[in-house]
Design a protein that fits this description.
Elements (H helix, E strand, L loop, with lengths): L15 H5 L9 E2 L12 H14 L1 H4 L9 H15 L8 E5 H13 L5 E6 L3 H10 L2 E8 L2 E2 L1 H13 L7 E3 L13 H14 L3 E4 L15 H4 L5 E6 L10 E5 L2 H14 L5 H12 L2 H27 L3 E3 L7 E6 L5 H10 L2 E2 L1 E2 L12 E5 L5 H21 L1
Parallel strand pairs: 1-12, 3-4, 3-6, 6-7, 7-8
Antiparallel strand pairs: 2-9, 4-5, 8-9, 10-11, 11-14, 13-14
Length: 400
């Protein structure tokens, strides 16, 4: 049978990151490509104990369908966690449990925007949001980054230009803390400026904060949501980086009217988030395991970040890279004459993989860029991988 597919599918393409994961299993390959947490960070013994308790005490509920908006006990725990961790004051009814935060990234553009509408994103930005925008046929206007995060003065220019053309962006999407892919963190002054602009132009903000707990150096900066006095911000969080990504448990904090729309859409998507995973997350917070586990993960990832930065300092020439205070990624800029996508075949032959920077742009990509993950590889593989990458870049320059 010859199948005919919808026009919607024409807007979707496979993620380069997903495609690169297959190379991770090639013998001898070192991959800096995937955004994978290190299995050493998984609290396996604690989760085993939690599962035993759940089967003993909550099995009939944990193995049953759940409420679309999420487990009420977990939402109560998240209220305390968000207050303690990010100084975010929220009520349980303002929290929606999601199947990973990616579900919210897919849902919110559908809730806020119509096909053909414009939104504003950072450039570069997370591929999961780009995929969602493509699926929803939503256009974007990009605002650049520097080592202090989104250049908010450029955002003001974009907002003024859009207004002059009669265009109101439907939302501003940002990852202000340890940005993916660049690793940059938006300064406090820029966060306040961003909130002022959002209020002035009446544009909601989606704040994605998957890495906020993973700080290895520098001072903690308040989230946009904690600074938000006018209900401008929808906040996305996840347990993937601080518990286990395979459990696919995330959450969205937003206004009641937003979550009412989300509830309707989620009923069509999956009815409800996995009940068992929600009970695991509930016990993970309730028992205080989350507060003991995060420092262990920080120690592990701080060491790996430092090893990669030291290796880059020693091996790399004619390139610059970010020096993140946390998160999982470095952003590398090569000399202008190198196309990182064209160089990828050479890199694979040299048994080193990365994600090309062009994958993180909706418009006008910088071709001489790449993202490196430092959390997943072993310490020795980080050192060897950077050597292979430096060798690849040198060979590519010689071939031009």
């Amino acid at each position: 049978m010859k199948f005919e597919f919808s026009d919607n599918m024409k807007n979707l393409k496979s993620s380069e990151i997903r495609e690169l994961l297959k190379y991770a299993h090639v013998p001898g390959m070192i991959s800096f490509g995937g955004g994978l947490p290190n299995p050493e960070s998984f609290p396996t013994q604690e989760l085993k104990s939690i599962l035993d308790d759940i089967m003993e005490n909550y099995a009939s509920s944990a193995l049953q369908y759940g409420e679309t908006e999420g487990l009420s006990e977990l939402k109560e725990q998240l209220v305390e966690y968000l207050k303690r961790d990010e100084n975010i004051n929220v009520k349980p009814e303002n929290i929606m449990l999601t199947t990973g935060s990616q579900q919210a990234l897919y849902a919110l553009p559908m809730i806020f925007a119509n096909p053909g509408d414009y939104v504003i994103t950072e450039a570069p930005t997370y591929v999961g949001m780009l995929s969602s925008l493509n699926a929803s046929q939503v256009k974007s206007v990009s605002v650049g980054l520097d080592d202090q995060g989104m250049i908010v003065s450029d955002l003001e220019v974009r907002l003024k230009d859009l207004k002059s053309r009669g265009i109101k962006p439907r939302f501003i999407y940002t990852i202000p803390t340890f940005q993916n892919p660049a690793g940059y963190t938006m300064t406090l002054d820029r966060r306040k400026y961003l909130l002022e602009l959002a209020e002035q132009y009446n544009v909601p903000i989606i704040e994605d904060n998957p890495y906020g707990d993973l700080r290895y150096s520098g001072q903690k900066i308040p989230t946009l949501k904690s600074l938000d006095k006018n209900d401008m911000v929808s906040y996305l969080g996840t347990f993937s980086k601080i518990m286990a990504p395979g459990l696919r448990t995330g959450f969205t904090v937003s206004q009641t009217e937003v979550l009412q729309e989300f509830d309707k859409l989620k009923q069509a998507m999956d009815l409800a988030t996995n009940s068992l995973s929600q009970y695991i997350a509930y016990e993970y917070i309730r028992k205080g395991i989350i507060y003991r586990q995060i420092p262990k993960t920080i120690d592990l990832y701080r060491r790996k970040r430092d090893i990669m930065l030291e290796a880059l300092d020693d091996e790399m020439e004619d390139a610059t890279w970010s020096r993140p205070d946390g998160g999982m990624f470095l952003w590398v800029k090569l000399s202008k004459d190198i196309d990182a996508l064209k160089m990828l075949k050479r890199a694979i032959n040299n048994k080193i993989a990365y994600v090309t920077g062009s994958a993180f742009y909706h418009n006008e990509p910088e071709l001489n860029t790449m993202r490196l993950n430092f959390t997943y590889s072993s310490d020795e593989d980080i050192k060897e991988g950077v050597k292979r990458l430096a060798k690849t870049i040198k060979e590519e320059k010689q071939s031009l």
